[in-house]
Amino acid sequence: MNRKIAIVTGGSRGLGKNTALKLAEKGIDVIVTYHTRSDDAKAVVADIEKLGRRAVALQLDVSSSKTFSQFAVHVQQALQHLWQRATFDFLINNAGQGIAAPFAELTEEQFDQLMNTHLKGTFFLTQRLLHLISDGGRIINMSSGLTRFSFPGYSAYAAMKGGIEVLTKYMVKELGPRGISVNVVAPGAIATDFGDGSVRDNPDINNFIGSQTALGRAGVPDDIGCVIAALVADDMRWVNAQRIEISGGMLL
Question: I need a surface site. Which of 109, 116, 122, 178 has the fewest CB within 10 A?
Fold first, then answer.
């Protein structure tokens, strides 16, 4: 049987971890990437293996595009060693970082960090991995509800995510001849350690988010990973070039 294989960047924690586990529950093997949290990534691999799937953790700094060619080599080696395959099926561009600062105070260094991680990283990592993605595969890019609604302090972060949404449409046009579909997932405010864990750990922020959401609460990782796993299912093959917001009806 030809196992389906996904790469989830930033898979050692938060939404990436949840996505990796939800994919495994759907019978998909996973390559998870991590930046510095190797022990956390190994724990995710162990959890995936307990679900009866194969997995491996590979180090990757998505903000450093000069490392992507070597990362592609490592992916190729892992595919051959664990699966005796030359390609994988699904790329989930999840890895990111949150920097919040007022527009008037955000530094150029902070801007570059966000750009390198979210926009440049997604662009060039996907480019470097194209020859390893199976024809008929899927790419899921991560955006944010902040491209639809706005909060002070997130101008640069949201701008990068807006770029991701435009980039996705161009990917669709150019990768369509290979049968590769590309969609955007845009979470609302989620209770994770992202952004210093403010939504998760600050009751006032958590309650405010809940008060602004039609379903009456802030999101949790289990609200997101299952949607990404659903989008790579065979039944979703005709969904393409879509921005799918997963926010529980936030700020309608």
Answer: 109
Per-residue H/E/C for 162-226: HHHHHHHHHHHHHHHHHCCEEEEEEECCECCCHHHHHHHHCHHHHHHHHHCECCCCCECCHHHHH
Homologous superfamily in CATH for domain 5-244: NAD(P)-binding Rossmann-like Domain (3.40.50.720)
Q: Name residues whose C-beta falls within 8 Å of residue 168's C-beta, 6 or more positions apart in sequence.
A: 141, 182, 183, 184, 241, 243
Residues annotated as catalytic are 143-144, 157, 161
So where are the chain's domains? 5-244
pLDDT score of 1 more than 70: no
Query: What predicted TM-score, i.e. pTM, was given to this entire model?
Result: 0.96
Backbone φ/ψ region at 75: left (φ over 0), alpha (ψ -120 to 50), beta? alpha
